[in-house]
Automatic annotation (TrEMBL):
<comment type="function">
    <text>Catalyzes the dephosphorylation of histidinol-phosphate to histidinol, the direct precursor of histidine.</text>
</comment>
<dbReference type="InterPro" id="IPR036412">
    <property type="entry name" value="HAD-like_sf"/>
</dbReference>
<dbReference type="InterPro" id="IPR006385">
    <property type="entry name" value="HAD_hydro_SerB1"/>
</dbReference>
<keyword id="KW-0460">Magnesium</keyword>
<dbReference type="GO" id="GO:0046872">
    <property type="term" value="F:metal ion binding"/>
</dbReference>
<dbReference type="GO" id="GO:0004401">
    <property type="term" value="F:histidinol-phosphatase activity"/>
</dbReference>
<dbReference type="Pfam" id="PF12710">
    <property type="entry name" value="HAD"/>
</dbReference>
<protein>
    <recommendedName>
        <fullName>Histidinol-phosphatase</fullName>
        <ecNumber>3.1.3.15</ecNumber>
    </recommendedName>
</protein>
<comment type="pathway">
    <text>Amino-acid biosynthesis; L-histidine biosynthesis; L-histidine from 5-phospho-alpha-D-ribose 1-diphosphate: step 8/9.</text>
</comment>
<comment type="similarity">
    <text>Belongs to the HAD-like hydrolase superfamily. SerB family.</text>
</comment>
<keyword id="KW-0479">Metal-binding</keyword>
<dbReference type="InterPro" id="IPR023214">
    <property type="entry name" value="HAD_sf"/>
</dbReference>
<keyword id="KW-0378">Hydrolase</keyword>
<dbReference type="InterPro" id="IPR050582">
    <property type="entry name" value="HAD-like_SerB"/>
</dbReference>
Length: 218
């Protein structure tokens, strides 16, 4: 029995849920149709290039959480799950999760997308443990700020190690599945790195290091 760790966006689902949430907000008329769309596209390109300014991105991404009531956000997220997420859940990803469950492994999703967006997705996938960017909450409302260290690049390793301090699990025999070169810091510390439908940069590195490469989309 080992820890089976999964990236979420473009790994277990075939889209970037952060970007998709931005598109959803645009469709609802909840954000500026010009400035927000431009920023949403720019930040996605920066992420793919490995040059994302995470602080600047989160300032944009978390503002709509602060600008709207929990009730409105909950209603939107229900629509978002049905229209944007459910069609992009990969059957082979669910099969992979099921295989690790059958082995008795402990399943964990670790993502740079915030918990508001990703907690319902993890629940839908039947994954009990989630490490995500934590939006700050005060008196029942989101503040638009981040609580703690974002789980991005090296921050994924930092957050995972902090999580392990309070658990009976270790990284001995651990698996990590990811599509992105941004996840190299975590791929490098597990015993079983697996790249899933990788970007070109990660594919090249995986081939050089003879890491397993797989697809959940074929």
């Amino acid at each position: 029995m080992s820890l089976a760790i999964f990236d979420l966006d473009n790994t277990l689902i075939s889209i970037d849920s952060d970007h998709a949430w931005g598109e959803f907000l645009l469709e609802q008329g909840a954000v500026d149709p010009v400035a927000y769309r431009e920023a949403n596209e720019r930040f996605l390109a920066d992420y793919n290039a490995g040059t994302l300014d995470m602080a600047a991105f989160l300032e944009m991404a978390l503002k709509p959480l602060a600008d709207n009531t929990p009730e409105q956000l909950a209603a939107w997220h229900q629509q978002f799950m049905a229209s944007k997420i459910e069609p992009h859940i990969l059957p082979k990803a669910e099969e992979l999760l099921a295989r690790h469950r059958t082995r008795g492994d402990t399943l964990l999703i670790i993502t740079a997308t915030n918990r508001f967006i990703t907690a319902p997705i993890a629940e839908r996938l039947g994954v009990d443990y989630l490490i995500a960017v934590n939006p700050e909450v005060e008196q029942g409302r989101y503040t638009g700020r981040v609580s703690g260290i974002p789980s991005y690049r090296e921050g994924k390793v930092t957050r995972l190690n902090a999580w392990l301090e309070n658990k009976d699990f270790t990284l001995d025999g651990a698996w990590f599945y990811s599509d992105s070169h941004n996840d190299l810091p975590l791929l490098e510390v597990v015993d079983h790195p697996v790249v899933v439908d990788p970007d070109d940069t990660l594919r090249k590195i995986a081939e050089e290091r003879q890491w397993r490469i797989m697809s959940l989309r074929d």
